[in-house]
Amino acid sequence: MEVLVQIIKEEKKIIIAMIILLFILTQIIGLSIVHGESMEPTLSDRNFLIYQRSVKEINYDDIVLVQRPGSHVIVKRVIGLPGDHVLLRDGMVFVNGEKQEESYETIENEEDQYEKTVKDGTLFILGDNRMDSLDSRSAGLYDIEHIKGKIIMRLLPFTMF
User: Fold this and answer.
1) N or C terminus of the chain with fewer C-beta within 10 Å?
2) Is the dihedral of CA 103, 107, 112, 114 positive or negative?
3) Does the annotation mark 76 as catalytic?
4) For residue range 87-132, what is the model confidence (pLDDT) as tens digits?
């Protein structure tokens, strides 16, 4: 009888741990995969990502998951916040008239010329591979309400940490 009681106690611990893990994975963090090369060289095709689901604050340079209704999830970098004036010229990014020193590596499109004021409730997002990215230059501004989460870290491949 004592053995049966011990087994039930151990199973309770496992069930409680599984419930906690399920809660974390459905409410707090999520897992996603990168599709395509639009975030090269920062993120590559088929990288697995961990992201924070409930995003209270979005900042410049955050990498976010965005999903418009009826569309697939995309991974992009935040360049402009509501009220910002964004200018792309000669491979450089200017926000509110100031040249941005991008601390991450990008693949530039030197011929890209674009200018936009970011409306309230929206973001200006770009892929790091500016030569091969569907982002705010072609798809327009993205509603903040369509942000699924903010990338916390790359999970796989381990060789890219």
Assistant:
1) N
2) negative
3) yes
4) 999 888 999 999 998 878 787 777 778 999 999 999 999 999 988 9
